[in-house]
Design goal:
mainly alpha, 5 helices, 87% helix
């Protein structure tokens, strides 16, 4: 395998992993805006929530702008999912050590993506569905 093709494969895997981490970051912010406050209030820890808002007032701003936040997180998840789908059959290097690293990077990227989707769905439930169900 020539060096150019190896570099292209490594770059593709790194981009895929980077987008997966970005989707994890944006999905995590949906938990901070919606699921964490709902959890704290539902278990009777309103004082802890007030203390958290006092320490991190940005939580209020994030909660006020939850629709664009969820839209951006969904966009990142769609991009990460598309990259996962495109990379599913991409060739790995013939060298056994590099092939193992390639396979491992794909698995890690998929697990990060799946975890990001789970986080997003949890935040979406607490932001948009739970208020309807429990009001």
């Amino acid at each position: 395998m020539n060096a150019t093709k190896k570099i292209a494969i490594d770059t593709g895997l790194k981009n895929n992993l980077a987008v997966s981490f970005l989707s994890l970051f944006t999905s995590g912010s949906t938990l901070i805006c919606c699921a964490l406050p709902a959890l704290l209030v539902s278990i009777g820890a309103g004082a802890a929530m007030a203390g958290l808002v006092g320490a991190f007032p940005q939580i209020v701003w994030i909660s006020e702008h939850k629709t664009p936040l969820f839209f951006f997180a969904a966009l990142m998840l769609v991009c990460a999912g598309a990259m996962q789908w495109r990379a599913r059959n991409a060739p790995c290097p013939a060298d056994p050590a590099l092939a193992m690293a390639c396979t491992r990077a794909r698995k890690i990227s998929f697990y990060i993506y799946a975890f990001s989707v789970a986080i997003f769905l949890t935040g979406f439930f607490f932001a948009f569905i739970a208020p309807i169900l429990f009001s």
